[in-house]
Amino acid sequence: MVFYNFNRGNLIELIMKKIGVMTSGGDSPGMNAAIRSVVRTCLYNNINVYGIKRGYQGMIEGDIYKMQTTDVSNIIQRGGTILKTARSKAFMTEEGRQEAYRQLMKHDIEGLVLIGGDGTFRGAVKFFEQFTIPAVGLPGTIDKDLSGTDFTIGFDTAVNTAVEAIDKIRDTAEAHDRLFIVEVMGRDAGYIALNSGIACGAEDILIPEQITNIDEVLSRIDRDERRKKNVHIIVVAEGDDFGGSKEVSSAITSRFPELDVRVCILGHIQRGGAPSFSDRVLASRLGHAAVNALLSGNTQVMAGVVNGKICFTPFANVIKQNSTIDADMLEMIRVLSE
Ligand code: F6P
């Protein structure tokens, strides 16, 4: 059914009047700013907006409520997500997806805004193979492991959190002449490790996109020891092929038992905290663009930013098969850590 909105003197053709919004997968700083943007853009266009709690899991359970403008007051600066989030096992099943669709129909949801990462878009691809409902996605993940966007909501904040922590580690490492291995998040992608490692002047950065040659890592430590370099920081992504920080640590201590080696796993602190200004702006722009895309019929796409401009990529194409890192970047790391 087509609705006409004569709001603010413009004739706007609206194809829907009830939009659902959810956050799914691992939370990321800026998700709240994205929800705020979606809700306020919907309300501006006289569209009812419904929050779906806990992602696909809440969709299945019908945990859906009508949102007002005050629901999103005072959240732009907050980490986490007011809609909560989950990784739903039930949504991976045929029955789960059927129930999710039934609940959306029961609540008369005519369009969806999905905020999440890789798993959210994999779920979306499966869901929309079976069911027809207009949807637009937003990239909400600290991992930055999606195609179709230069940045994802939360990545900038997570890298800044890691940088702040590694800088602190460098102080104590220097005071004790210790070698530190710092593990950052990134199960399948090394963007947090790469960027925080470069920004902190790490001596080595180990990422899933590049096969780790542990002998090379050890010989760089040997060289630095002979040069009496007193701090050696290795940033390792949790998904590095050699294993995590503990595996790297045991390889180092068995070759250099005299070295004072410590491991620090940054973990979930990278997912929390107030979003950076860039994540707030990105989330606001993408939330607004997503609702406008839904209204103009540009659906089953993720809104992203490429070279500063909003662009849209079909769901299936945002899922990266293999994430790749610019070879020049890897070369630069070698040079700068000499
Ligand atoms: O959301 C992405 C991420 O933080 C990954 O970097 C990490 O591997 C994973 O989520 C951890 O997930 P969980 O919080 O479910 O343990």
Category by helix and strand content: alpha/beta
Low-confidence stretches: 1-12
Percentage of residues in DSSP E strands? 15-25%
Task: Report helical residue fraction.
Answer: 25-40%
Provide the CATH topology of the largest domain.
Answer: Rossmann fold
Radius of gyration, in angstroms, nearest whole number: 22 Å
Walk across the major sheet and give the strand order: 5-4-3-6-7-12-13
What is the highest CATH level, the class of the largest domain? Alpha Beta
CATH architecture of the largest domain: 3-Layer(aba) Sandwich
* Tally of contiguous helical segments: 11
Structure explained in plain terms:
It is built from eleven helices and 13 strands. It has 338 residues and is of the alpha/beta class. The protein has a seven-stranded mixed β-sheet with strand order 5-4-3-6-7-12-13, with helices on both faces. A four-stranded parallel β-sheet has the order 9-10-8-11, with helices on both faces. It is elongated and about 70 Å long. Residues 25-26, 87, 117, 141-143, 185-187, 238, 271 line the site of 6-O-phosphono-beta-D-fructofuranose.
